[in-house]
Amino acid sequence: MTAWRGGRCYGAGVSASQPVRGTRVRGTRQAEALASALECLAGFRSAQDIHAELRRRGERIGLTTVYRHLMVLSEDGAVDTIRDEDGETLYRRCETSEHHHHVTCRSCGRSVEVEGRAVELWADRVAAEAGFVDVDHTVEIFGLCPACAAK
Amino acid sequence: MTAWRGGRCYGAGVSASQPVRGTRVRGTRQAEALASALECLAGFRSAQDIHAELRRRGERIGLTTVYRHLMVLSEDGAVDTIRDEDGETLYRRCETSEHHHHVTCRSCGRSVEVEGRAVELWADRVAAEAGFVDVDHTVEIFGLCPACAAK
DNA sequence: CCGATAGTGAAAACCGTTTTCATGCTTTCC
DNA sequence: GGAAAGCATGAAAACGGTTTTCACTATCGG
Ligand SMILES: [Mn+2]
Ligand SMILES: [Mn+2]
Ligand SMILES: [Zn+2]
Ligand SMILES: [Zn+2]
């Protein structure tokens, strides 16, 4: 698969997936470098981790730009985000467009995407019983992956 | 029910639920005021909200103290904590000692405690299938409560 | 090339939370 | 009662991840 390219405008008021009429999208060195890094990294990583990784590779890119692209990619569903126990946001390339959750390693960040009709049904039922509407849920599973558990 | 009293030492190395031999627990005006506020507040609130509420009631208490007590209370299982979408920690008096989750109103913070054998089993199964050990999970459901939905 | 303008990034602001530390309060011991 | 011991308090400062600012740069249609 070719590296991700293109993107969207950063300007205010732009929220549709299509660029606003009269605007253009520019491919930049930085966007491509980030996409390529996300392609390689196995698990969930913080923005600062990813930035450090890019620098390690010799890329010239600012932390602000990493944050900006990650924000857009996650809005577009191209990367998943979770919050670790310290409240730090972690990012990882998303592998499916279906609704899903993760089993993530606390130690190395490695993550497996899982789908589960059972939880979805449970969440909807429980919320309905409480009389709540416009319902939404977060489900994250953390543990030690086989590799980290072996240590 | 009488207001919560007692507590635990703040010193390092104290983690048991029983006070360390030779130390005593002090009931302070501030601890009591916080307990009483938690008793009244219906839903999940931020530490700053709770502090503001206490000040509104005329209590003289510092924000640091509110944070300190909430931290201890949550470690002891007397209050539940969740993270809102901005990553801010919200607190609420816990009503049960059983493992449980919440259906929480995005708008007013009102929350219902729910237990669900189904999710617990699902989480354990999914993690085991991925070969993860020492597993743990977070499950939170958000929506609009009946009152807020009516508006 | 040029001009319009989206993208970049160093530095500063933001903001919830934690740490510091001097000053209270209780409790304990005499 | 008095004094010493040490937990509790809270204003102020530090912390750290993230966002904002804004002057500058790079891209690309024409
Ligand atoms: Mn789900
Ligand atoms: Mn559970
Ligand atoms: Zn691992
Ligand atoms: Zn509500």
Automatic annotation (TrEMBL), chains A, B:
Zn(2+) binds at C105, C108, C145, C148. Gene3D superfamilies: 3.30.1490.190, Winged helix-like DNA-binding domain superfamily/Winged helix DNA-binding domain. One of its GO terms (biological process) is negative regulation of DNA-templated transcription. Its main location: cytoplasm. Keywords: Cytoplasm, DNA-binding, Iron, Metal-binding, Repressor, Transcription, Transcription regulation, Zinc. It is found in: Cytoplasm. Fe cation binds at H99, E120, H137. The keyword Zinc applies. PANTHER family: FERRIC UPTAKE REGULATION PROTEIN, ZINC UPTAKE REGULATION PROTEIN. This is Transcriptional repressor. It comes from Actinoallomurus iriomotensis.
